[in-house]
Amino acid sequence: MYNLYYWSHIQGRGEFIRLALEAAGADYVDVVRRSEKRGGGRAAVLAILQGNDPRAPFAPPILEVDGEWISQTANILAFLGPRLGLVPKDEASRRWANQLQLVVTDFLVEAHDTHHPIAKHLYYEEQKPAARKRAKAFVELRLPKFLGYFEGVLARNAKGPSWMVGGELSYVDLSMFQVVAGLRYAFPKAMARLEPAHPNLVALSARVAKLPRVARYLKSKRRIPFNQSGIFRHYPELDR
Amino acid sequence: MYNLYYWSHIQGRGEFIRLALEAAGADYVDVVRRSEKRGGGRAAVLAILQGNDPRAPFAPPILEVDGEWISQTANILAFLGPRLGLVPKDEASRRWANQLQLVVTDFLVEAHDTHHPIAKHLYYEEQKPAARKRAKAFVELRLPKFLGYFEGVLARNAKGPSWMVGGELSYVDLSMFQVVAGLRYAFPKAMARLEPAHPNLVALSARVAKLPRVARYLKSKRRIPFNQSGIFRHYPELDR
């Protein structure tokens, strides 16, 4: 049994954990989405962050398992991967999966900072001129660089271009699906232009969406819709 | 024997790997700092990044060991930690170390982006107004938040406040030393103001600097000086 602690109103970084748990059919509670009466709500996260535990995490997502708190998306996935059968058994492949997940981590900061280039505590509307410039550089240079890298990983995979790591589904594939979904929401024009040059990535995204457990999850109320509070936000003026 | 591939003119993210290798007295080559004749130079990194290897990394630092390339700072340290005796043996402590290292990773992006809030490919001089605003938010809010967290980890450590993870030196301590050193170079005024409230962190930094192997390394030519090309840059107008 896993307890996931993450903000209840956004997909955010928590979604990469939710997707792994859902794809594996794991037994978990999305704690913050429960009512406060039942120990949920925002207070459940704040109690951990503001508590005095020797190993209190810096920020959510946080996975609680057997009394241990595990934080940082890639760290949680490196822990869950072997337990959920979402990473190959050999150590070199696990390092490779972790490496790719950390590229995703880097990418998410850059995607987020297109709308928040100055400060997280300010509204988008307070940093629009800088956002416009940062989004331009992102769409023209950084987005193609990251997508090109991920496409290359699939194209060069010795086990074929179906999956990112080896010949089976791993948590990295679930993350790639989420990256593509988020980009399509936030930057529909840029993605329409870039997708044809990244056929393996587009096919991977469709393949993941059709996995029975993932498909059921995406149709369920457990999947929070994209919105203007998460990592991926759709501001037409930032999309070219 | 380890081969490290990282840019030769900056400490950057490579320094977190160099410090681990040096503190453990490991046998390694800082490949790019060798002459091109001897297989070094920038070309050595570019050959990996632009090559067609199925597991080509996205970016340096890259550690080459037994024919495997391992990239992403935290991923390299998670690999080296057990081999170099720089992390406790139990899995929960290793996850905790990795978690803390990933907080450092997040922090480094924010420290870097104070001088490059708009785009990596532009000069600082081309993004000064945004840099001034981002640095203000960093110094006033983000820097105290991160330093306060790291100080709290030391203060709450069940084995005492000498080390970040358990009761012995780990790679996380080496990274904390580097973070403090970088901040003192880039933001001397802000750090002079903040240090008194973070006594355990300041003491840890001094403790690491005095480790015999680290002390020798810091005095050697192998330690590249801080400069205006790395993560930490000193622009007086960004320091308050």
Q: How does this structure look, described?
A:
- 2 copies of one chain form a homodimer.
- The first copy, chain A, is of the alpha+beta class and 240 residues long.
- Chain A is built from 9 helices and 4 strands.
- A 4-stranded mixed β-sheet of chain A has the order 2-1-3-4, with helices on one face.
- Chain A starts with a strand and ends in a 21-residue tail after the last helix.
- The relative contact order of chain A is 0.14.
- The model of chain A has no long low-confidence stretch (mean pLDDT 97).
In angstroms, what separates the terminal alpha carbons of chain A?
A: 44 Å
Compute the number of structural domains of chain A.
2
Strand arrangement in the largest pleated sheet of chain A:
2-1-3-4
Residue stretches of chain A low in confidence (pLDDT < 50, at least 5 long) are none
Tertiary shape of chain A: globular
Order of helices and strands of chain A: EHEHEEHHHHHHH
Share in helix of chain A: 40-55%
Structural class of chain A: alpha+beta
Q: What is the quaternary state of this protein?
A: homodimer
CATH class of the largest domain in chain A: Mainly Alpha
Largest binding interface between chains: A-B, 45 and 45 residues
